[in-house]
Write a structure and sequence with these properties.
Number of helices: 8
Largest sheet: 5 strands, antiparallel
Strand content: 25-35%
Radius of gyration: 16 Å
Helix content: 25-40%
Low-confidence stretches: none
Order of helices and strands: HEHHEEEEHEHEHEEHEH
Strand order of the largest sheet: 1-2-3-4-5
Length: 184
């Protein structure tokens, strides 16, 4: 999504968001992410105005003082940026890929089932299974912080059974052009 992202050519406009819309976004984020209202307040204080940065391919990036906080594709789920995820790693559910998949992830590839089900990979246990189309933080074996964000294409039990094909569609990853942008 952000593989060839350049603010000079891909950003079509900056728009301050009305407070009523900000409340709706805040409610959406609280329902989608596993966080308390106090944590969201620390990430995005209520007194701070949110600015919508409209980009190509129907991507909306929400910023505070120019710092990207979250983004959305069409009307899909809200994703935190990787910088926010590194500060608050418990926001999204965790999946982990084995060492062999790291170089592909850092090149922007989608994560395949074998990379998540092998010895170095991690999927949540059956009692905490993730449904398809759930935003997840992608960690790498032996690394402390998330190296990417994605959305599951299969539920976790199906990933274990099938063990073939795309399991997590990568949305953003460490080193892509959104990561390179400190401010917008």
């Amino acid at each position: 999504m952000f593989k060839k992202f350049s603010p000079s050519s891909d950003v079509s406009g900056h728009t301050p968001i009305k407070s009523s819309v900000q409340r709706a976004i805040r409610a959406t984020v609280l329902s989608q992410w596993k966080i308390e209202p106090e944590t969201l307040e620390a990430i995005w204080p209520k007194k701070e105005g949110l600015v919508l940065v409209k980009c190509r391919e129907h991507i909306s990036i929400y910023t505070v003082h120019g710092e990207p906080l979250l983004f959305q594709h069409f009307d899909g789920p809200m994703y935190p940026t990787l910088r926010i995820l590194h500060k608050y790693p418990y926001i999204l559910p965790k999946v982990q890929v084995d060492r062999g998949a790291i170089r592909f992830l850092l090149a922007g590839a989608h994560m395949m089932c074998p990379g998540l089900t092998s010895a170095g990979g991690y999927l949540p246990p059956a009692e905490a299974a993730l449904a398809a189309n759930t935003p997840v933080a992608i960690y790498a074996e032996g690394k402390e912080h998330a190296v990417g964000l994605g959305i599951t294409k299969l539920d976790t039990e199906e990933m274990r059974k099938v063990n073939k094909g795309v399991a997590v569609e990568t949305v953003t990853y460490l080193g892509d052009d959104l990561w390179a942008q400190q401010t917008l």
